[in-house]
Amino acid sequence: MKRLHVHVGVNDLDASIRFYSTLFAAQPTVTKTDYAKWMLEDPRVNFAISSGDHAAKGIEHLGIQVESAEELAEVYGRLKAADRPVLEEGATTCCYAKSAKSWIADPQGVVWETFHTTGEAVDYGQGPGLDHLVSETAANACCAPSLAPAPVSCCG
């Protein structure tokens, strides 16, 4: 079963943890000095926040988290059919998790990741450079907003 993923960059992690814990009526399932994640069932979402130099503020990216390699192959097929540049990152460590993932940007430049988490990691890791996905989207879109390259975080 797939799960929506939302990652938001925040200025004040502690205040944001308090806010989202109240909003979701749940404590984070993962808490680090620069990161927190809620694996919610209602609604079924992986909601993550992060602070620090690696985090752009506001919505960083959206995603689809899957529970198996078979589901990941299915979603990868959809990415390839979407007729947009795809960055196939493969096995990686980010957001204190080991995952297999790929990235795509929609026609407006909104970055999406698709991933299957396979385990935990002791460090945050880092995401790939996604500027080319966003810049190619902006170059091909009429009236697209100017998107300044921002540090890209990843999570899962």
TrEMBL record:
VOC domain span: 2-117
GO biological process, one term: response to cadmium ion
Gene3D superfamilies noted in UniProt: 2,3-Dihydroxybiphenyl 1,2-Dioxygenase, domain 1
Entry's Gene Ontology molecular function annotations: dioxygenase activity
Keywords recorded for this protein, A-Z: Dioxygenase, Oxidoreductase
Alphabetized InterPro entries for the sequence: ArsI/CadI-like, Cadmium-induced_rsp, Glyas_Bleomycin-R_OHBP_Dase, Glyas_Fos-R_dOase_dom, VOC_core
PROSITE patterns: VOC
Keyword Oxidoreductase found: yes
Keyword Cell inner membrane annotated: no
Xref: NCBIfam families: ArsI_CadI_VOC (NF041414)
The protein, known as: Glyoxalase/bleomycin resistance/dioxygenase family protein
Originating species: Croceibacterium soli
Source species taxonomy: Bacteria, Pseudomonadati, Pseudomonadota, Alphaproteobacteria, Sphingomonadales
